[in-house]
Specification:
There is one protein chain. With 198 residues, this protein is α/β, with parallel strands linked by helices. Helices cover 33% and strands 15% of the residues. The chain has a domain at 17-149: Response regulator (Rossmann fold).
């Protein structure tokens, strides 16, 4: 996303209800400082999964930030997504962890988290993820093996003004056509429905 730290964009979570699930006092303090810096006033601080589950049952939430907590965070998110507590089962969830190897990223995705973020958190990174969730609006998927946000992402290339980090990054500019355009008859033939006898 590439949010410029020097930009004058204002972002305010004043009306948001945010659940923080973090069993470390220092970690909780950092989250509270960052979110109050974004204007958040309604913070539900939970140190255990049981406390978080109780909060989910009585308060309508706009965002959940959950620590992995040696695996308990993943289980909480899975419980939240499978619960019938409306509308909280659809709330955006950011999972934070001290270690984010590929298997942890896959586990976070499969339990229903929107994103997993590595500690230490910085305000700008957390803000980028919150804005990304707000902008993307991914559909909610519910099936036998998964409940959560659609795991597919659009690959629209590198944001304007940013330099790509990977060899296979899409280019921002489309450029001129390299071959002749298809004629309309060929396009119509591809789209036209046809009766097929089996």
């Amino acid at each position: 996303m590439g949010l410029n730290p020097d930009s004058r964009v204002r972002f305010n979570l004043e009306r948001a209800s945010v659940l923080l699930l973090e069993d470390s006092g220092m970690g909780m303090g950092i989250l509270v400082q960052i979110l109050t810096g974004f204007g958040a006033k309604v913070l539900h601080r939970c140190e255990s999964v049981a406390e978080a589950q109780e909060t989910v049952g009585r308060v309508e939430l706009d965002l959940v930030i959950c620590d992995a907590m040696r695996g308990e965070g993943y289980e909480f998110i899975k419980w939240l997504r499978a619960s019938r507590i409306e509308p909280n089962r659809y709330v955006p969830v950011l999972l934070i962890s001290g270690h984010t190897p590929s298997h942890a990223v896959a586990k976070a995705r499969d339990c229903g988290a929107h994103f997993i973020m590595a500690k230490p958190l910085t305000p700008i990174t957390l803000l980028e993820r919150i804005l990304w969730i707000a902008r993307e609006g991914r559909c909610f998927v519910e099936c036998d093996t998964y409940v959560g946000p659609d795991r597919r992402f659009k690959n629209a290339g590198v944001p304007p003004g940013m330099v790509g980090r990977r060899r296979d990054d899409l280019k921002g500019e489309i450029g001129q056509a390299e071959g002749p355009n298809m004629d309309q008859e060929l396009i119509d033939g591809m789209v036209r429905t046809r009766r097929v006898e089996l």
